[in-house]
Specification:
Blueprint (H helix, E strand, L loop, with lengths): L6 H9 L44 E2 L1 E3 L14 E3 L4 E10 L7 E3 L6 E3 L8 E10 L4 E9 L7 E6 L6 E2 L5 E6 L7 H5 L2 E6 L5 E5 L4 E5 L9 E7 L10 E2 L2 E8 L3 E6 L4 E6 L2 E7 L10 E6 L2 E9 L11 E9 L6 E4 L17 E3 L1 H10 L5 E5 L3 E2 L13 H4 L17
Parallel strand pairs: 1-8, 9-16, 10-17, 18-26, 21-27, 24-25
Antiparallel strand pairs: 2-3, 4-7, 5-6, 7-8, 9-11, 11-14, 12-15, 13-14, 15-17, 18-19, 19-20, 21-26, 22-23, 23-24
GO molecular function: acyltransferase activity; peptidoglycan L,D-transpeptidase activity
Protein name: Lipoprotein-anchoring transpeptidase ErfK/SrfK
Pfam families: Big_10, YkuD
Length: about 425
């Protein structure tokens, strides 16, 4: 099993055309519409904004933010308002100087109105907010502000989710950042990471790798047939280190049938369940004691029908080899896979001889490869080590109570509800 290195994989993620680099065992932007975020508890505030609503002039004004005349505002700017004496906002409209209306939606807690796409750099906008005071009196306020020029110092980001793809029930929403998000900025960034699930399921974010990755998952595996609608709305967002988010990342994807694999080192067998029913039991060979397989719940990250495992640069001569591999399914960045291993068929089910991979027969390797999707989970138990956090998409290797501790925002019991 190869060393745990992720630099090449990180660059692939940031380009958003990820081709996960094989190191060996042993070694598509769409719409920005309505989104629901999983980072914080749902609010109970103003209703959703009515775009372009016509209103008569209110008797009293309210204060709009950004302030009238404000300049150099980030393109991630949200519109908010203060109503003297209390009250509720009923509508927000935002238009550029040429009269073009900007789509957006109110956060459920009523704290602000979020444009559905980044604003343009160096552009003037006028926001009009209408509401009702605590006594039922109409209120209105306007503000004209200008966004900043495009900054030079930006963070790169990546989203391991693509439009119109179907994933397994264990597929977390995985976001990467380079450089990582400073700890003091993670709560603000998390508020701009929106996930909508249909049917609705609560969830939470968890930060790993010094802020270079964040995972989003539900308390349990996604329900088969779920639609995930994701917007990582970071374009132009200012960070404390003087950098700004580079782009918004969006994706709408599907979750397929339930296909779950379980491996027990004690029996050296894999049991396979589809939609809750046992469909196959097969012998395996795991990592030998010097290069053990990682225990934990992992997910299939990549599939290669044919590839080459090359560990000739390993510092340990005993771990150097170059081998043709069939039906390889990546589980970790460090190089653990499920794959066909005809050379170990004689000991599969009885002895561990691999460099950390899950060895199966050629026939079972082909069968599994034909059944699985990216995001299908596999739980391995009873080996000599636990998977390291972030060595693969390890969101499910933590209990729910452990997982929510990695959120930068409070998570209520059972998971967070919608932000928008």
């Amino acid at each position: 099993m190869g060393r745990f290195t992720r630099a090449g994989a990180m660059l692939g993620a940031l380009a958003l055309v990820t081709s996960l680099a094989l190191t060996g065992c042993g070694d598509d932007q769409k719409k920005a519409a309505e989104f629901v975020g999983g980072g914080a508890a749902p609010g109970t505030g103003a209703p959703a904004a009515a775009q372009g609503a016509e209103t008569s002039a209110p008797a009293e004004s309210l204060t709009v933010s950004p302030a009238d005349g404000a300049k150099n505002k980030p393109v991630s700017t949200e519109i908010s308002a203060k109503l003297p004496g209390g009250g509720t906002v009923s509508s927000v409209t935002l238009a550029s100087a040429d009269g073009k209306q900007i789509a957006g939606r109110m956060r459920l807690d009523g704290s602000s109105w979020v444009p559905s796409a980044p604003l343009k750099y160096g552009t003037e906008y006028t926001a009009t907010v209408t509401g009702t005071g605590a006594g039922g009196e109409p209120r209105q306020g306007t503000s004209t502000f200008t966004t900043m020029a495009k900054p030079k110092s930006m963070i790169s980001s990546g989203l391991y989710l693509f439009d119109d793809k179907t994933y397994g029930v264990g597929m977390p929403v995985v976001v990467e950042f380079h450089p990582g998000i400073p700890k003091k900025d993670r709560a603000a960034v998390q508020k701009r990471m929106f996930v909508k699930t249909d049917p609705p399921q609560p969830g939470a974010w968890h930060w790993v790798y010094n802020g270079t990755q964040a995972y989003y998952r539900a308390p349990e595996y996604w329900k088969p047939g779920t639609t995930l609608d994701v917007r990582i709305a970071l374009a132009g967002m200012p960070l404390s280190n003087g950098r700004y988010g580079n782009v918004d990342r969006t994706a709408t994807a599907k979750i397929g049938r339930s296909f779950v694999m379980k491996v027990d080192n004690n029996t050296k067998k894999m049991t396979v369940y589809q939609d809750g029913e046992l469909v196959r039991t097969l012998p395996v060979s795991l990592g030998k004691k010097s290069t053990p397989s990682s225990s934990g719940t992992l997910v299939v990250m990549e599939k290669k029908e044919k590839t080459v495992f090359d560990t000739m640069d390993d510092p340990d001569p005993d771990n150097r080899y170059r081998t043709d591999i069939d039906f390889a399914q990546r589980l970790t960045w460090g190089g653990e896979y499920i794959h066909a291993a005809p050379w170990s068929e004689g000991v599969q089910g009885r002895q561990n001889v691999s460099h950390g991979c899950v060895n199966v027969s050629m026939a079972m390797g082909r069968w599994l490869f034909e059944q699985t999707k990216i995001g299908d989970p596999i739980t391995i138990k009873g080996t000599e080590r636990r998977v390291a956090p972030g060595n693969g998409w390890t969101a499910w290797s933590l209990s729910w109570s452990e997982f929510v501790k990695g959120s930068a925002l409070p998570v209520p019991d059972g998971g967070s509800g919608p932000l928008l």
